[in-house]
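Hi everyone,

Forwarding the result from last night's run.
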Amino acid sequence: MSRGASAAIGFLQEMIRNAHSPMDPAAAPEQTVAGLQRVLQVLTDLKDFDFREIGEYVHDGIYIADGEGKTLYVNKAYTRMTGIQPDEVVDKTVEELEQQGLFKNAVTPQVLKNKTQVSSMGKSLRNGTEMLITGNPVFDEQGQITKVVNNNRVITDLLKMQTELEASQALIRAVEQDRKKSEQEIELLRRQQSEKNLIGSSEETRHLIKQIEQVAKLDVTVLITGETGSGKEVVANELYVRSDRGKGPFIKVNCAAIPANLLEAELFGYEKGAFTGATAAGKLGMFDLAQNGTLLLDEIGDMPLELQSKLLRVIQHKEVTRIGGAKPIKLDVRIISSTNCDLKEQVRTGKFREDLYYRLNVFPINIPPLRQRGVDIEDLTRHFLSIYNAKYAKNTLLEEAGVLVLKHYSWPGNIRELQNIIERLVIISEPAAAIDADLIGSLLNVDTQYSEVLTGERGLKELVENLERKTIAKVLAACGSTRKAAKILKIDQSTIVKKAKKLGINLTDDK
């Protein structure tokens, strides 16, 4: 506390004593006494907040000089940074201290000269510490500088703070980019799923659509079964889009694609330090990500038995406990599962829990294979042809005979195989080609003659001529001469020549 403040307190105390004195005929009224007591209390309280005491708790170095540049005070942090003790600098001017070689680039003289804030890169010559020094003038009522307050901060601290700030800003930018990317992906997913994905007009597909309409808005578990490539994910998408959860997240987990030892962590998440290799921040599970939305457990038949019991508890109690965690998290998630396995058979052989099967199979939807939906084959063909014509900037068409080849093929790979074949046909065809049965048959490795009969385009005579033309042309191309071709086909050379000319086959060697 300054000597001036102490003197003020003493003066006020004397005034209060005189105001109460009965010998004084001009004694002050009670209001004046009360006012003086309040001022006294304020000044007394200020004693507890002496700047020297406060300065000892400041992390930065504090250096205070008077209006003449003489050192008044340095705090403990200043000594820690510079190695200079208070008794070495107090009552000495900055110029004297610089001459003694204690430090350089002091800002106090410039502050006194310019009467404004000044910053400089200073250095303690005692220990070599480099500091950023910022000096600020303190003015009296007449505009004269009474004090210069300098703040000293070590450069390494500033660099550390800058590094931490840059790291924080980079993290914020990364989080923002991830957020925008997630929003874009979700919006794209919603746009894709809002389109008509369930293609087909067969009786089987109409029944499938009816089932979806029945259960989409009911918050129950659905089990979708069907062969690989039959469209189970498309049905799951339709259930999601048509449900009341259509604006929430739709998380898909392929239980067959994730190793068994990682699947639990992916599904349920884990707390930090839950196991060796766990990330420091822990990890949200798929159930967490699907909160207030829908979770598709694809290929559920491949889930390990030990994990099935944990999944059953999650479904029963509608809560999940992360690996390494103790507090259960309440869930609001609709579960859709799909499989190409016969779960009943797996239950019978002990590969799938019976209680979990009944929990998942509240509403079963079975997708018939594509070979049982001939009408859908044509609808899907036109649909995929339109997609890939647009993708590859072409305008190909399918001949009727070619469509018949597709409709009578067994399609072991179902819709996925059909989509693949149509894309390949568009790629290898000319921009405006009419894709015929032969090209389709060559890709599928099937005989196309039966399709030609069904279309009514060719009779038996035409079919025989066509078969002869193809056979003779192939043998001639392989042998290079009519003589060798006749030997392979076990007919006369003259017969080869006559048939080739009749069937319009060009001959380059009549030997």
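The first strand starts at residue 61 and ends at 66.

Cheers,
N.
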